[in-house]
Amino acid sequence: MHTVVVGTSGTTAEDVIAVARGNARIELSAEAVAALAAARGIVDALAAKPEPVYGVSTGFGALASRHISPELRAQLQRNIVRSHAAGMGPRVEREVVRALMFLRLKTVCSGHTGVRPEVAQTMADVLNAGITPVVHEYGSLGCSGDLAPLSHCALTLMGEGDAEGPNGTLRPAGELLAAHGIAPVELREKEGLALLNGTDGMLGMLVMALADLQRLYTSADITAALSLEALLGTDKVLAPELHAIRPHPGQGVAAANMSAVLKGSGLTGHYQQDDAPRVQDAYSVRCAPQVAGAGRDTLAHARLVADRELASAVDNPVVLPDGRVESNGNFHGAPVAYVLDFLAIVAADLGSIAERRTDRLLDKNRSHGLPPFLADDAGVDSGLMIAQYTQAALVSEMKRLAVPASADSIPSSAMQEDHVSMGWSAARKLRTAVANLSRIIAVELYAATRAIELRDGLTPAPASQAAIAALRAAGVQGPGPDRFLSPDLEAADVFVRDGKLIEAVEPVTGPLA
């Protein structure tokens, strides 16, 4: 099993995904353990002084004005976890919770939080045991950290609340810890606060969304090429010299991907004589690299933000190397929230242009010789008419999900926390958008491959043939009379979501970006 070593200098997107989705084992580096101990020494020294220090010897948020006596401080730390574990709604997915916990551990190990080494080790032990705290959908405003989600995770470390075991069974957290030989932690000064105060949930969802969208953007380049081919379009618009004079990096990548898929096609460039010669293709075909390219550049920006956040230590207050413990606002989720919203916008637009190509394939007035709705016997058969309805419904929801969450703010904590990021909400809706985008691309794939197969006497590109063969081998049927369509569409979605489309064409095209 892959092992991820947590040090003091942050982590990588690859490590987050390895832990969240691949159940990678976690180890703390000797450097991290030393940094934890050093920072804890600073906190212990401050705790012994009479002067109040936020998070160490005071209340929290709007209650920070109260000085807490030493005999109540352990109770203070327990209480912040219990009271902040106030989430409601459906359970959050296991991979999100694992990413959330791992990223909090990453910050704890930075040496800027003042948490004892044994608390960090317990966090690693819980993850390694496959124990997943129950975290609920609602409870984070994306400022002062993802408070409620992180509180539910900290509650598990204390042996309280419910958690899911490695076999998927829900049990009291104390029982699961005992079954794996893990002692519950007894929190001391600052530790409860340090376990709650970060952007870890929204960041974990951003990292996973970026990985998924990278795969979907490559898949969308392939389906756009298949649609161009099925519509007898021209691949001349993909020429590198055309994209070099508008040098957005993503645009050139998308055009190169489409060109690689279409190499050797016998369908491209067949300008048919309808009412008038077709001298250029519709925007949804001709501008596919420009739209997908702009989205790719947005992914690159979001990845830069994610990498910076992965290298950050987000807590309040923080322990500085010179021994100061200072309050700050680094927990504000604005940088992450903005790019989460930006990704929802570009995902919606990619889905929108894919749906327009699908609709064109199904319309006999615009498909240049294909049967209505790609039906076997139009009128008796409805073909893919309602598949486009489903795709359109998904696109419509994508547009609603593209409304920014980060443009909203609602005051909390008696106006002490009077501006919040809503980054968790942005991340939650992006996850839905990513799932919808996969389905939209799957419908375009289903329609485009059927349309290519209906072009009798014309030979598709070798990469297209490979895609069609792999899709059929996956159980997705080709042209023919009407049948129960939902299973085919679901299978096509799995094919796209799992990267099988890319795997099918790359042996022909070479690696696609």
UniProtKB/TrEMBL annotation:
<dbReference type="GO" id="GO:0019557">
    <property type="term" value="P:L-histidine catabolic process to glutamate and formate"/>
</dbReference>
<dbReference type="GO" id="GO:0051289">
    <property type="term" value="P:protein homotetramerization"/>
</dbReference>
<dbReference type="GO" id="GO:0045548">
    <property type="term" value="F:phenylalanine ammonia-lyase activity"/>
</dbReference>
<comment type="similarity">
    <text>Belongs to the PAL/histidase family.</text>
</comment>
<dbReference type="GO" id="GO:0009800">
    <property type="term" value="P:cinnamic acid biosynthetic process"/>
</dbReference>
<dbReference type="InterPro" id="IPR001106">
    <property type="entry name" value="Aromatic_Lyase"/>
</dbReference>
<feature type="modified residue" description="2,3-didehydroalanine (Ser)">
    <location>
        <position position="144"/>
    </location>
</feature>
<comment type="pathway">
    <text>Amino-acid degradation; L-histidine degradation into L-glutamate; N-formimidoyl-L-glutamate from L-histidine: step 1/3.</text>
</comment>
<keyword id="KW-0963">Cytoplasm</keyword>
<dbReference type="InterPro" id="IPR005921">
    <property type="entry name" value="HutH"/>
</dbReference>
<dbReference type="InterPro" id="IPR022313">
    <property type="entry name" value="Phe/His_NH3-lyase_AS"/>
</dbReference>
<keyword id="KW-0456">Lyase</keyword>
<dbReference type="GO" id="GO:0005737">
    <property type="term" value="C:cytoplasm"/>
</dbReference>
<feature type="cross-link" description="5-imidazolinone (Ala-Gly)">
    <location>
        <begin position="143"/>
        <end position="145"/>
    </location>
</feature>
<dbReference type="InterPro" id="IPR024083">
    <property type="entry name" value="Fumarase/histidase_N"/>
</dbReference>
<dbReference type="GO" id="GO:0019556">
    <property type="term" value="P:L-histidine catabolic process to glutamate and formamide"/>
</dbReference>
<dbReference type="Pfam" id="PF00221">
    <property type="entry name" value="Lyase_aromatic"/>
</dbReference>
<dbReference type="InterPro" id="IPR008948">
    <property type="entry name" value="L-Aspartase-like"/>
</dbReference>
<protein>
    <recommendedName>
        <fullName>Histidine ammonia-lyase</fullName>
        <ecNumber>4.3.1.3</ecNumber>
    </recommendedName>
</protein>
<keyword id="KW-0369">Histidine metabolism</keyword>
<dbReference type="GO" id="GO:0004397">
    <property type="term" value="F:histidine ammonia-lyase activity"/>
</dbReference>
